């Protein structure tokens, strides 16, 4: 009898495992979304517990849901005071949540599997690879070229774990002495340095204290360290994987790495110069400060607008032109498979390379001596159009619900979708519950990616075995 029960239990487990393998193999995008949604719900339940609140009172389900999604999606928007609302347990949940969300749920699960079993099965490799390359949400062969190949996933996971540990530890070391100078005791300074470093590298943007960045608003050291943390987190783990393999040999860097680094630096410089010019003379921001402070604040905002989420000023007091520039930077975001959001810098690069190729009358896109296939352009166009459609739709709905100014609503919607965390003040504790829920869903959709969502919603993914007759419509 005991043997039969054991055999029956083993058979049930085997069938369950086989069913899971078939589901993940057939619908990887849906599986990824289900796992990520479950993680968000788990953190929501944790935030609802009385132990998570500083007052010992349970947090309401809508506020807990909003904060759970904002934490796990490493966004930074908040409808509670993060520095006073949560207990030590609640803050520990916040720190854990941004780490899980920044690294990626599937990537983290694969890292744990690699640590325990010291090897990765095919299913674990496929799950981790889907975090590093959105194209893998589709069934069939993925032509990755110089990107991360399936056989290199184990090395990528080790790079993820190493880079997170090294960069966050370095940020703590750099920030700890500066916080001590504020008169904080060593234990409190260590906690705040850890909090700042986690939020910078994961591009979350939450702050640990009531005063926030006010004590460091004129401190180049503290602000530049935060900028470096945000920038390193926004490049993406595949970039560090390649850099470590070809250290000191830039000619052997992949096209993805070259595009990510060059476009990220270009956007940082253009954004900083734009803010410097547009806010010049604005007494409500930094426009009347000394030139050095204006330069520091302009480039700090340029860095944070790409997904960092930290703010030195009330962004609602910026000129509308500056808000529009911030909208554009937030929408683009950071690098693929990074802690940043947005449509990604490589997507923007592909669109411009396509426009340049068309203007020059060339049949293919080229960059750094490499030809880029047309299917990459189709994916870039798909990501951009889906993202713009989602942002526009959510903005229209929230305008009807709240009646707030368009510039403020659009700003916070893009911030939510691109998981940035900057706000003009539209997102606040008094916001209507339906608006909070819509913004939370927008953060979730933005974090999982429009391509993953589209693939998950598709009824089936089949291979087309025929080609229809070609006809060219008039464009332009």
Can you characterise this structure?
The chain has 476 residues and is mainly α. It has helices at 2-26, 28-48, 61-72, 88-103, 105-117, 122-132, 153-180, 186-201, 220-235, 237-245, 255-278, 291-308, 320-332, 345-359, 374-402, 406-417, 433-448, 450-457, and strands spanning 365-367, 370-372. A two-stranded antiparallel ribbon has the order 1-2. Helix 11 packs antiparallel against helix 13 and helix 14 (345-359) packs across helix 15. The termini are far apart.
Over the alpha carbons, how many angstroms does the gyration radius reach? 23 Å
What ranges have pLDDT less than 50 throughout 5 or more consecutive residues?
A: 109-132, 136-147
Straight-line N-to-C gap: 76 Å
Q: Count the helices. How many?
A: 18
The general outline is globular
Output the helix-strand order: HHHHHHHHHHHHHHEEHHHH
Topology, number of strands: 2
Biggest sheet, strands in spatial order?
1-2
Estimated share of beta-strand residues: under 5%
> Taking all residues together, what is the mean pLDDT?
84
Structural class: mainly alpha
Helix content: 55-70%
Main sheet makeup: 2 strands, antiparallel
Q: Which properties best describe this structure?
A:
mainly alpha, 476 residues, 1% strand, two-stranded antiparallel sheet
């Amino acid at each position: 009898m005991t043997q039969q029960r054991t055999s029956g239990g083993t058979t049930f487990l085997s069938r369950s495992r086989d069913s899971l393998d078939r589901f993940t193999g057939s619908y990887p995008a849906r599986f990824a979304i289900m796992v990520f949604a479950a993680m968000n719900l788990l953190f929501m339940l944790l935030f609802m517990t009385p132990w998570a609140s500083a007052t010992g009172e349970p947090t309401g389900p809508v506020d807990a849901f909003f904060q759970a999604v904002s934490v796990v999606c490493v966004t930074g928007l908040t409808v509670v005071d993060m520095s006073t609302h949560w207990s030590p347990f609640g803050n520990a949940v916040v720190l854990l949540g941004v780490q899980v969300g920044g690294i990626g749920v599937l990537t983290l699960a694969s890292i744990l599997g690699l640590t325990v079993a010291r090897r990765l099965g095919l299913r674990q490799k496929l799950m981790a690879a889907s975090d590093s390359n959105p194209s893998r949400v589709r069934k069939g062969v993925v032509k990755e070229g110089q990107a991360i190949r399936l056989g290199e996933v184990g090395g990528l996971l080790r790079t993820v774990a190493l880079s997170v540990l090294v960069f966050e530890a370095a940020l703590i070391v750099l920030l700890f002495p500066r916080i001590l100078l504020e008169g904080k005791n060593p234990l409190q300074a260590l906690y705040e340095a850890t909090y700042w470093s986690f939020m910078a590298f994961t591009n979350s943007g939450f702050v640990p204290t009531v005063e926030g960045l006010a004590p460091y608003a004129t401190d180049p050291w503290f602000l530049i360290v935060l900028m470096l943390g945000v920038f390193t987190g926004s490049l993406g783990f595949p970039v560090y994987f390649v850099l470590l393999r070809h250290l000191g040999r830039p000619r052997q860097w992949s096209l993805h790495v070259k595009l990510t680094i060059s476009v990220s630096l270009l956007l940082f410089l253009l954004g900083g110069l734009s803010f410097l010019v547009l806010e010049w003379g604005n007494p409500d921001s930094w426009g009347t400060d000394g030139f050095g402070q204006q330069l520091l604040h302009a480039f700090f905002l340029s860095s944070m607008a790409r997904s960092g989420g930290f703010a030195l000023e009330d962004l609602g007091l910026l000129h509308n032109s500056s808000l529009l520039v911030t909208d554009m930077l937030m929408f683009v975001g950071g690098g693929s498979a990074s802690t940043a959001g947005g449509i990604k810098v490589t997507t923007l690069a592909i669109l411009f390379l396509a426009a340049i190729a068309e203007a020059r009358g060339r049949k293919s896109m080229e960059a750094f001596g490499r030809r880029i296939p047309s299917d990459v352009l189709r994916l870039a166009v798909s990501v951009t159009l889906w993202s713009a459609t989602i942002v526009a739709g959510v903005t229209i709905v929230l305008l009807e619900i709240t009646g707030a100014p368009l510039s403020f609503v659009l700003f916070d919607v893009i911030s939510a979708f691109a998981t940035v965390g900057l706000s003009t003040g539209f997102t606040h504790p008094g916001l209507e519950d339906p608006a909070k829920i819509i913004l939370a869903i927008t953060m979730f959709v933005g974090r999982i990616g429009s391509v993953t969502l589209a693939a998950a919603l598709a009824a089936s993914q089949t291979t087309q075995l025929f080609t229809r007759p070609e006809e060219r419509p008039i464009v332009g």
